[in-house]
Write a structure and sequence with these properties.
Blueprint (H helix, E strand, L loop, with lengths): L1 E13 L9 H6 L13 E2 L4 E4 L3 E6 L2 E6 L5 H15 L5 E13 L5 H9 L21 E7 L2 E13 L5 E15 L5 H9 L2 H16 L4
Length: about 220
């Protein structure tokens, strides 16, 4: 199978962010962006802050703060300082959790997605499997697993999906592997908790790609 990294994001969850605080002047003051970095199409309102630069995009909603790097290379050193500066500058926010997410797309080369998911996942014993069997079922199968990695919980979800074009049109079918490296965050220690998570960016990226590569191996 061919695979590619479709998206990666760092997210901080809180019971209540205040997007109205996040204005261009605020981001300039805390050193997240320089005035000349802001690209056209930005939004600053009481309910959402959304701004793009050549290095990353930032989205702030009432319960979520998200930073996505523009380039894969060097993403950790770009995103980490942005997230940490924002969390440190908003100390009264009731932080709950943080996570780093990698979404990989796998495209089978010599079989359909239906055949690939059946080969990979239909062999797992399940009382529900027979309900999806049959020559006319057109079935697809998926996979979910999670485990602890120290203070972080890895959650992996694999399922069939369709690639979405920039204009919103649905493309060809593929297998989507969504990796979530989750860490609970305490409000009092949020900057340190988030910094520790971001310091492991390269480790998480390498692990996600290694697991995707293992999934793509064609076994007899």
């Amino acid at each position: 199978m061919e695979w590619k990294l479709a998206s990666t994001t760092a997210v901080v969850i809180a019971n209540a962010f205040n997007p109205s605080v996040v204005r261009e002047s605020f981001l300039n003051k805390i050193g997240v962006i320089a005035p000349e970095e802001v690209q056209a199409g930005f939004v600053f309102s009481d309910q959402v802050a959304n701004v793009s630069t050549a290095r990353f995009t930032l989205l702030v909603l009432p319960q979520q703060l998200q930073v996505a790097p523009v380039e894969r290379a060097g993403a950790g050193p770009v995103v980490g300082p942005v997230i940490i500066k924002l969390v440190t500058a908003l100390p009264h926010t009731p932080y709950v959790a943080a996570g780093i997410n990698f979404v990989w797309h796998l495209t089978p080369e010599d079989e359909t997605v239906a055949d690939a998911t059946r080969r990979l996942f239909a062999g797992i014993a399940s009382p529900l499997r027979e309900a999806f069997e049959g020559p006319d079922a057109n079935a697809r199968f998926g996979f979910f697993a999670s485990k602890d990695l120290g203070s972080v919980r890895l959650k992996l979800d694999v399922k069939p999906a369709r690639e979405i074009a920039p204009d919103g049109a649905k493309g060809s079918e593929l297998m989507q592997c969504s990796f979530n490296f989750h860490r609970d965050v305490a409000p009092a220690t949020a900057p340190a908790d988030v910094a520790e998570l971001c310091d492991r960016w390269a480790e998480f990226e390498q692990l996600s790609e290694a697991l995707v590569a293992k999934l793509s191996e064609k076994r007899a």
